[in-house]
Design goal:
Elements: H1 9-53, H2 61-72, E1 80-93, E2 96-108, H3 116-119, E3 128-140, H4 159-171
Antiparallel strand pairs: 1-2, 2-3
């Protein structure tokens, strides 16, 4: 009698599908949050390395990079944990400065973490998603060839030639 009764199948299937729809829809929300956090973190890293690589900057490049990243990125908006920023400066010569930086963070998930009930969590827990961003910028000046033509004829005798020598040394 009970095996032949088909009433209530819609309710049972709806109950099972609500869970699937909730996890898939919630997963989309977590994915969008992660993508937005990644984009904002990348923009902050890019601005930090560009500012630190500037040859016209008088401040220490590490301080500039840290300052730009800190002011351009707010991880609390995305529930990020363990946010770290690591700039590396290479100044090969007076005319070249290269800045590389990596930023990492862990983003807590709202919905995808519910799948840990099915998977058991452990080392492959979905309660957090790792973000890792990198950026690189370099600024250099090219060598310029300058020719300096000086008049050393007889008309430059006396104080004029000594003034010319002083001006030439100051120019160099």
């Amino acid at each position: 009698q009970y095996l032949k009764n088909k009433c209530g199948n819609v309710a049972m299937m709806t109950g099972l599908m609500v869970i699937v729809i909730f996890v898939v829809g919630g997963g989309a929300v977590d994915f969008i949050r992660m993508t937005t956090a990644r984009a904002e973190m990348q923009a902050a890293v890019d601005s930090a390395v560009l500012a630190a690589a500037s040859l016209t900057n008088d401040r220490p490049p590490i301080a500039v990079a840290n300052d730009y990243f800190e002011k351009n990125f707010d991880g609390s908006r995305f529930d990020l944990e363990n946010v770290s920023f690591n700039p590396v400066i290479e100044q090969n010569k007076a005319f070249l400065k290269e800045v590389r930086a990596t930023a990492t963070a862990d983003m807590r998930t709202y919905f995808i973490g519910l799948l840990d009930i099915l998977t058991g969590g452990g080392d492959n827990s979905l309660k957090t998603l790792a973000l890792e961003i990198s950026g690189k910028a370099a600024e250099s000046e090219q060598f310029l060839e300058i020719a300096l033509v000086l008049d050393v004829s007889g008309s430059m005798a006396g104080a004029r030639i000594s003034n010319l020598q002083t001006a030439g040394e100051d120019f160099i």
